[in-house]
TrEMBL record:
UniProt keyword DNA damage present: no
Presence of keyword Ribosomal protein: no
Organism, scientific name: Actinopolymorpha rutila
InterPro entries with a match to the protein in the record: Aminoglycoside_PTrfase, Kinase-like_dom_sf
Protein name (record): Ser/Thr protein kinase RdoA (MazF antagonist)
Stretches assigned to the Aminoglycoside phosphotransferase domain: 27-262
GO molecular function, one term: kinase activity
Alphabetical UniProt keywords: Kinase, Transferase
Length: 339
């Protein structure tokens, strides 16, 4: 696997392939995930910046076309989003420096914080808008849940990590029973409940400009069919469950009220509340496997090691008073029933 190299040749190629105007100044790595990384390309004369997303596993042009169509509908409905640019030959994906990339306009700002003004209301309105856009869904091509690892798989991964001297091995072994219990709560969702939506409205995929209190939704790569109640439940957890295990019930209530006021109809039951668990567990398993995979570039293995360290931290002290994931999911179910 070849990774993008931030040199003059790469910058000139990006300018040429995407028909950008300006003289390239620098290409700076901004963020990195399990499936790709984002760079900022700065140009001069005129001075402007673009986001360059490198896709480790490549991509499918038709999938990007559907994603952009959905993003355009969302923008027309009032959601702010970066614009995806085409190449000079009219495509969205291009190979530059031996890797597949896409380019969009740059959105300045920072990741929103829970105490930023209007965060719960923006989240509720945005999810309701996405869920009611009416973009067509093909149930026959809806993605299936990934296989859920069982207890034996987690313990085997932990043992492999221990043998390889990985720092996350002990924490994964300790977390394995709880991960298996969460997996037991998951249920498949029928195709009749699907809408086309963003899939990944997380704080790390939103830019907040505190000067004008505007939010910009990024990273539309995963847009596709999803059960709206699953997405709503997952985002209530992501935005309102703190790292200390405490659940911001008031913030979640404000999000749900904004969701209902904007026309959102999803109702969260147990199947929907735990519906995001298969993807979350698959991500943990994938990061562990990548961390152990010596065929991958060292930079990717190191990133996976850091990621799983964040995903599976040390067990909390016995005197910790925060809620368990089960407590939070049950609180989300109850809130949905009352609003």
């Amino acid at each position: 696997m070849q990774l993008l190299q931030p040199g003059d040749h790469t910058m000139r190629s990006l300018v040429e392939v995407f028909g950008l105007e300006g003289v390239p100044l620098r290409l700076t790595q901004i963020s990195r995930g399990g499936h790709g990384q984002v760079w900022r390309l700065d140009l001069d004369r005129p001075r402007q910046s673009y986001a360059v997303k490198e896709l480790f596993a490549g991509g499918e042009e038709q999938q990007v076309v559907a994603e952009v169509e959905f993003r355009d509908l969302a923008v027309a409905a009032g959601i702010r989003a970066a614009e995806t640019l085409r190449t000079v030959d009219g495509r969205y994906l291009a190979e530059v420096g031996g890797t597949v990339v896409r380019v969009s306009t740059w959105a300045g700002g920072r990741e929103p914080r829970p105490d930023d003004p209007g965060v719960p209301e923006w989240l509720g309105r945005t999810l309701a808008t996405l869920h009611t856009l009416g973009h067509p869904v093909d149930p026959d091509h809806a993605p299936a849940d990934p296989p859920v690892p069982d207890l034996a798989t987690w313990l085997d991964l932990a043992e492999q990590g221990k043998t390889a001297g990985q720092p996350w091995a002990t924490n994964l072994a300790h977390a394995a029973p709880d991960l298996a219990k969460l997996a037991a709560k998951t249920r498949p969702v029928g195709p009749d409940h699907l809408v086309f939506s963003h899939h990944d409205v997380q704080p790390c995929n939103v830019v907040f400009d505190p000067d004008n209190e505007q939010f910009v939704l990024l990273d539309w790569d995963g847009a596709g069919p999803i059960d709206p109640a699953r997405e709503l439940a997952s985002r209530l957890y992501t935005w309102h469950a703190g790292d200390d295990g405490r659940f911001d019930t008031d913030g979640a209530r404000r999000t749900l009220r904004a969701y209902r006021a904007a026309g959102g109809l999803a109702v969260i039951g147990e199947a929907e509340a735990y519906g995001g668990i298969p993807d979350a567990l698959a991500n943990i398993e994938g990061q562990a496997l990548a961390s152990l995979n010596e065929a991958l570039p060292a930079e990717m293995r190191e990133h996976a090691t850091r990621e799983i360290g964040l995903l599976v931290g040390p067990p909390p002290p016995e005197e910790t008073t925060g809620s368990t994931p089960y407590d939070i999911f049950e609180a989300i179910i109850e809130l949905s029933r009352t609003l």
